[in-house]
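Feature request, filed as a ticket because there's no other form

It would be nice if the structure record came with a short human-readable summary line next to the tokens. Right now we just get the raw output. Example of a typical job, pasted below so the devs can see what we mean:
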Amino acid sequence: MRSNYNEEKVPEIHTIRGKSLDECKNKLNKSLNGNYEIIDWRTVEEQGLFKVKMEVEAKYITKLKPSVPSDEKKSFAQNQTDILKTLTQGKDISNVQEIARLGKQISQIQQQLNAGLNKIYEDSVEHEVHKNITKMEELLRANEFTESYILKMREKMKSLSLELLDDFDMVQKKVVDWIGESVNVAKKTVHRPPHVIVIVGPTGVGKTTTIAKLGIKIRLENSRIKDKDPLADEKVVKYMTTDRMRIGAFEQLSKWVHAIQDEDEEVLVAEDADELKKLFNQYKDSSDYFLIDTSGFSPNDHENIGKMLSLFEVKSLHADINLAVSANTKTSDLKKILQNYEPFAYQNVIVTKCDETTSLGSVISVLSEKNKSVSYVTTGQNPSEIEEANPIFFLRNLDGFTIDRDHLEEKFGKAQDK
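Raw output as currently delivered:
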């Protein structure tokens, strides 16, 4: 609902100055009781005696204060006597104080009516949005950030000073920092050997390939350690799969393992919890890592997800469970996957196939909203294309943003280059 302006009269434009836009609004609120509309503002220089100071000059028009229509006011006044009679029916109103009290009741009713109309009017007024906030929102949408995430960013931008808002580069720098801060990175923890890493997730997200990539990463790190200290122990990695559903899953993992480690290395297979416990107990004292691949199911296949869950009820595993999700998954499906795999109590998320999408805004938004941390990201089919998660990885893949790499590395630490 909006008040109707007098269309026959062109509203007069006034100006006001203050240290900030908020100060201008405060002055207008005091003098006009909110009955104004700011139509433009700018930063101006004011030459003082010794220095130049910056002020905000706002242009505004006054608006008709919403009120009870004149015919209703007239009717209200005409019926005031009748209202008094109704309120005092059957009572002795000869007492002057009683009459005054009843008159006050009527005044309160009128005030409440006017206050209600004012509230309706104020709610209908569109608040001014700075052009650089609008521009930044469009850039976030182009990167497929969710609307709820964009709304949070809008509220943060609205807290900036007018001087900062007028500088789009500074607004962009602030928003990039906030995006980076919203990326939760898995904390590094020390695990007693063997470190059991389990990857769960829906079919088609690249769990088997990611297991192999983790194996390569472990071996490369071990090689660097041995280069510095030839007497350092060789890390022993055991590979296991619980996936007997997908044709070729065992063969695929075996092929990777033979290429990575040893052609005689055997991939262990566990089809139930008892078999998994038996194999773990058999090799745990001679292994540093257990990398476990799992069956992939639709996120809606609650029955099979539940059956697979029973595999990891072996308490002695102390498993580090990671949920693998593909970077090109649409927002609604990504939310469903995160929710349906909650029973696994996964600690972290691995974002796969980051090379198959041009936008990571959806992933950043959903993981932030669900407060999920990221442990690794994968960026291609090459066995070495896996890296530990870092905010800079996500920030450098934003489309249309200017990235200050030096500033971000100072803030978030260095990330591996592609």
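Something like this underneath would help us a lot:
The first strand starts at residue 13 and ends at 18.
Residues 119 and 392 are 46 Å apart (CA to CA).
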